[in-house]
Amino acid sequence: MTKNKSVLAWIDEMKGIVNPDNIVWIDGSEEQLEELRKIACESGEITKLNEEKLPGCYLHRTAENDVARVEDRTLICSRKKEDAGPTNNWKEPQEAYDMLYDIAKNSYQGRTMYVIPYSMGPIGSKLSKIGIELTDSIYVVLNMAIMTRVGTKVLEVLGDSNDWVRGLHCKCDVNPEKRYICHFPEDNTIISVNSAYGGNVLLGKKCFALRIASYLGKNEGWMAEHMLILGLENPKGEVKYISAAFPSACGKTNLAMLIPPEGYKSKGYKIWCVGDDIAWMRKGEDGRLWAINPENGFFGVAPGTNKKSNPNALSATQKGTIFTNVAHNLDDNTVWWEGLDKNPPENAIDWKGNPWNGKTSDAKGAHPNSRFTAPAENCPCISPEFNSTTGVPISAIVFGGRRAKTTPLVYQSRDWNNGVFVGSIMASETTAAAAGAVGVIRRDPMAMLPFCGYHMGDYWQHWLDMGAELGDKAPKIFNVNWFRMDDEGNYLWPGFGDNLRVLEWIIRRCEGEVEAKETPIGYVPYAEDINVEDFELKAEDLEEILTVDNDQWQSEVEGITEFYARFGNRLPEELTRQLSGLKERLN
Ligand code: OXD
Ligand code: MN
Question: Which of 289, 277, 291, 326 is nearest to 148 (CA)?
């Protein structure tokens, strides 16, 4: 399929290690994918679901020990340990290659090597990048064919270039003791062994589009971020774009596909989803920051997705979707998960593969991290700009977290550098849903803690440099918190569609249409500037969630000081200055 010498030489080298019985190049054709689906159905790797109710949909179950990303076994193998930084696991590259090739040795024996050429981002866009993943799993091929653009066209665009990311995946025997997800940023290489769970093996996603790409972005002057991208269309038909970063379990996919409240909808407001997880952003010819979603599908968490919480995501899963680790309803050969509806199947198979009665069983039918892999084009609110090769211009960057107190509903940073500070101190409180103490603050700067492929201090410096480069064309930076609670533990803000009321204020600030109140942490809305039309929110509750409490922020400063100490002399001086500035303003 290609004459590219760097590609052929690398595949030859990998062939020598993993020793496959044969090699199949993925050309991206529907015929080839259909053939692979048949083979995977015959082997039991996937199960075809009800063609009338869920056309083109399949179910897959992973091993019980292989259901999530494994952060403690995810390594950044930079030549120098200090370049990986204090927030990443590190291994010396040669040692890592030796260990991985030893594990991978002959692991394709009796199996097929699938060669997947893929593009992150629209094929041929200047903002896109190419990768080649080798895998021995048809499940991986079929998922990659949804999550990325795959096939012959990608190789045509690559031509003779050596600018592509190498990815070797070996399922081996999914031994958790020998599971490693390793990144070699200086070699453009990813090696993943002993897993078959999406986040560890769909190498285009977290591994390439965040860990490797963040490193490439630093060197090449662009940004790879763990952000959704949405377009907000007003009744005049003008669309403004926002990118937003939240730690997990803060509703990123829901925000990306938000349904406006009735009052807004009837006036003509719309939300367009460009992406729900990753944004690649670059300065455009006009000096503004332009973003693409490098992915082509959604790898979303199934539990909790329903007609009310996210009807757009649910619609996206109704055809051409692969479900992983959800419950299998045997009565009509469909799928079910906790939170889909109040009618669990009685005659079902749970995510572990055991008979399951949803009406009587206490155990879960679907794993809490069960997933759908759905084509982006299925989403009813997918942006008309989704395939645009230039991307979309970003007006605002939004950070957020889950905080019962301290952080107001929304505030705007004082300027770009202050916004970088706001992103760097991002934090979320653990909830009762997870094991361990409730209300413990976990810092997750820019929601990139598990995804930054190099030293976090250098990453912040790169953000500061990007701001200097963009100057007054830089997006405005905001922070939101949908999770403020009263003293009884009740949420004060309803969230979901009503979050549009906050997005609207953000865009009005970007357009210079509305004043705001200066506080020590930044600019907070005047209550009367949040649209509460057709909205049952008590005035005192709105006042409450817009307050900035000095004492709470004093103790926040202590937490930030402690956190910053981890980064030693690679913490940019500008962030130390920002922290001092905050302290002064609080006093
Ligand atoms: C994801 C994650 O799967 O952030 O998107 O874990
Ligand atoms: Mn994510």
Answer: 277
Q: If you ran DSSP here, which 8-state letter would residue 339 be given?
A: T
Per-position DSSP letters for 147-184, written without gaps between them:
HSEESHHHHHHHTT----EEEEEE-TT--GGG-EEEEE
Spatial distance between the Cα atoms of 257 and 314, rounded to a whole number of angstroms: 11
Report d(CA 65, CA 318) in Å as an integer: 28
Q: Is the CB of 457 under 6 A from ligand 1?
A: no
For ligand 1, the distance from its centroid to the CA atom of residue 295, given in whole angstroms, is 13
Per-residue model confidence as pLDDT tens digits over 505-541: 999 999 999 999 999 999 999 999 999 998 989 999 9
**Other CB atoms closer than 10 Å to residue 4's CB: what's the count?**
19
Amino acid letter for position 344:
P
3-state helix, strand, coil in the chain (%, to 5): 35, 25, 45
- Active-site annotation, residues: 250
Distances (CA, A) of 226 to 302, 328, 398, 417, 544: 19, 31, 11, 19, 30
**Encoded tokens for 325:** 């680790």
Q: Relative to the CA of 248, which ligand 1 atom is closest?
A: 4
Radius of gyration (C-alpha) of the chain in whole angstroms: 24
Q: What is the pLDDT of residues 111-148, one digit of tens each?
A: 999 999 999 999 989 999 999 999 999 999 999 999 99
Q: CA-to-CA distance for 386 and 456, rounded, in angstroms?
A: 30
Residue 22: helix, strand or coil by DSSP?
A: strand
Q: How far apart are the first and last CA of the chain?
A: 66
Q: Looking at the predicted structure, is the pLDDT value of residue 435 above 60? A: no
CB atoms within 10 A of CB 466: 21
The answer to whether 154 and 163 have CB atoms below 8 angstroms apart is no
Beta-bridged to residue 244, according to DSSP, are 228, 398
Return the residue whose CA atom lies nearest to atom 6 of ligand 1: 248
The secondary structure element, H or E, covering residue 102 is helix 93-104
Does the beta carbon of 248 lie inside 6 Å of ligand 1? yes
Measured at the alpha carbon of residue 157, what is the angle toward residues 21 and 276, in degrees to the nearest 5?
85
Q: What pTM did the predictor assign? A: 0.97
Q: Which atom of ligand 1 is nearest to the CA of 226?
A: 4
Tell me which of 197, 277, 449 to substitute to probe ligand 1's pocket, judged by most ligand atoms within 8 Å of the beta carbon: 277
Q: Give whole-number Cα distances, 166 to 116, 226, 342, in Å.
A: 11, 21, 45
